[in-house]
Structure formats: structure tokens, C-alpha cells
Write a structure and sequence with these properties.
The chain has 266 residues and is mostly helical. It folds into two domains: 40 residues, no CATH class; 178 residues, Cytochrome Bc1 Complex, Chain C, CATH 1.20.810.10. Helix content is 64%, strand content 0%. It has ten helices and no strands. The protein is extended and about 80 Å long. The two termini are 23 Å apart. 20% of the residues are buried. The mean pLDDT is 91. Bound molecules: protoporphyrin IX containing FE (HEM). Protoporphyrin IX containing FE binds next to helix 3, helix 5, helix 6 and helix 9. The site of protoporphyrin IX containing FE has 27 residues, from helix 3, helix 5, helix 6 and helix 9.
Length: 266
């Protein structure tokens, strides 16, 4: 597939056939239309990004790819919504035992669209956990965890754990009765874990009782540490998806094809 010539920066474009005008030839309006492509060309000349982008966007996908293959992108979309709504919530939230509850109440009742954005973040968390499990189920049942994609499966498992950590640490932040006692219970369960359990629970509680220091610790983990790790791991996950290609559906994998038509089924 080829880009329309107008979108290709001038130095990379094929010369116009004799008698035809090249895009950008002509009056000021034509040249103005050309400006965005020139900007893209300037950036591309200095970064080489177009090779990566065309490789990613025009990569071959196996025959039989269906709606189940969109679940990874759905997870990515859910994460993006969580990140965006989280930024707006952080503008009003105060991570302190005396102010957390009031800051959330103020955000919900007084701030323009505050309740809506908070609702998106709250329900988005549930949606992300549902779609990540569905995506994992798809890769499992389609055998996509097998050679050579084992590492991508392992990265996925870490992403799943990190997503659950986001849910756990976010739950405390409103600091109402439910979130307080849910965190006490979760912390007590963590403490019963073998070997590292008690140490991990002490670290998360950050003091003798769940309280102000716990909120600060959970807040830092919830909005800095874990999102940073998730973004880095999504980068590695998608790099491997592009590099290794996607797995064909199991019911088509046994099909024999002429060698010249085989692709991606490593
Ligand atoms: C933040 C979480 C995640 C994001 C954003 C994400 C995103 C994606 C995307 C966009 C794809 C390519 C399209 C597709 O196959 O759906 C993909 C493929 C894949 N993902 Fe994930 N994923 C996540 C979590 C997971 C988890 C929890 C697992 C499993 C434990 C996993 C295992 C895989 C595997 C093995 C592939 C390759 C699929 C194939 O070759 O057909 N991912 N992921």
C-alpha cells in the first residue's frame, strides 16, 4: 500500500510524470497545503521515524485475524483513558488523612465534570481489568504464548499484576470507610504471604496502622511508580508484537500454503 503523494514529504516523493504538477507546485494555496507534509519531512529526516511507523502500521497480519485480536488494543485504550482521567483527578486530590476525603467530595460535588471524570476513572479501572483478562484468555486459547512469544507472555503477566496493583492502591485514595477497611483487610492478607508477606505488608502500610503515611505511599505507587512501569512494559510488549508478528488462529495454522505466500507464522 502507498501513501498519497501529497502526504509524502517533497524530498522523498517520486517525481511527477511529465505534464503533471507535483503537489505544492503552483500558487500560495498549494504551497500552504504542502506545509504539514514539509514539517513531517523535517522531523522524519532527523529521526527516521517513518520507517518505524510504516513498519508498524503496514505490517502483515495472518489470515483469519478476527475481533478477538482487538482486545490488546482495547486494554491499551482503557489504560490511556485511566492515565488521562487520572491526571485531572490529581489536580484536585490531596493525599493526606485529613484532606483526602474532603478533596474527593469537593471534586465530586463542586468541580465542573468532576463526578463524570471520577466515574470514568472508577469504572475504567474495572473495564481495564475485564479486558486485560479477556486479552490474556485470547492469547492463551490461540496458543500465542508459545515459542517465540514466551517473553511477551511473561511481560503480559507482569502487566496484569501491575494492573491489579493499580486497583489495590487506587482503592484507598478516597479514604472513606469502605476504602480504609478494604485496605486494612488487603494489608492483613498480604502479611500472611510466605517469606516476604510480612515485610511487604509493613512496607505498604508504612507505619503501625493504615493512615496518613499509607496514603502517601499508595499515592506515589499509584500515580508514579506503577504507571511508569506499565508504560515501559507496554512499549516492550508492543515492540515484540511488531517484531514477532501476531499468531494465526489455531484452526488455520495447520493449513499448507505455497512457500511464497507464507508469512509471519514463525
Ligand atoms: C496493559 C496491558 C496490556 C496491553 C496494553 C496489551 C496490548 C497488546 C496488544 C495491542 C497486542 C497486539 C494485538 C492483540 O493480539 O490483541 C498484544 C499481544 C499480545 N499480548 Fe498483550 N497487552 C497487555 C497485557 C497482556 C497480558 C496480561 C498478557 C498475558 C499474560 C498478554 C500477552 C500477549 C501476547 C502473548 C501477545 C501476542 C499475541 C499474538 O501473537 O497473537 N498481554 N498485547
Amino acid at each position: 500500500m502507498r501513501f498519497p503523494q501529497t502526504l509524502i514529504p517533497a524530498p522523498l516523493r517520486r517525481p511527477a510524470p511529465p505534464g503533471e504538477k507535483a503537489p505544492g507546485d503552483g500558487g500560495p494555496v498549494e504551497r500552504a497545503k504542502q506545509a504539514p507534509a514539509d514539517v513531517v519531512g523535517w522531523v522524519d529526516e532527523r529521526t527516521g521515524a517513518s520507517g518505524f511507523l510504516t513498519g508498524m502500521l503496514y505490517r502483515k497480519v495472518p489470515k483469519g485475524t478476527n475481533w478477538f485480536y482487538t482486545l490488546g488494543s482495547a486494554t491499551l485504550f482503557a489504560f490511556t483513558i485511566q492515565a488521562l482521567t487520572g491526571v485531572f483527578l490529581a489536580m484536585y486530590y490531596t493525599p493526606s488523612p485529613t484532606e483526602a476525603y474532603d478533596s474527593v467530595t469537593h471534586l465530586t460535588n463542586d468541580v465542573f465534570l468532576g463526578e463524570f471524570v471520577r466515574g470514568m476513572h472508577k469504572w475504567g479501572a474495572t473495564v481495564m481489568i475485564i479486558v486485560i483478562f479477556l486479552h490474556m484468555g485470547r492469547t492463551f486459547f490461540f496458543g500465542a504464548y508459545k515459542y517465540p512469544r514466551e517473553l511477551n507472555w511473561v511481560i503480559g503477566v507482569v502487566l496484569l499484576i501491575l494492573t491489579l496493583v493499580m486497583g489495590l492502591t487506587g482503592y484507598l485514595l478516597p479514604f472513606d470507610q469502605r476504602s480504609y477497611w478494604a485496605t486494612v483487610v488487603a494489608n492483613n492478607i498480604t502479611a500472611t504471604g510466605p517469606v516476604v508477606g510480612p515485610y511487604l505488608a509493613d512496607f505498604l502500610r508504612a507505619g503501625p496502622e493504615v493512615g496518613g503515611t499509607t496514603i502517601q505511599r499508595f499515592y506515589a505507587i499509584h500515580m508514579l511508580l506503577v504507571p511508569g512501569l506499565i508504560i515501559a512494559l507496554i512499549g516492550a510488549h508492543l515492540y515484540l508484537v511488531v517484531k514477532l508478528g501476531t499468531t494465526a488462529p489455531p484452526w488455520l495454522r495447520g493449513e499448507t500454503k505455497p512457500k511464497s505466500l507464507r508469512r509471519e507464522e514463525v
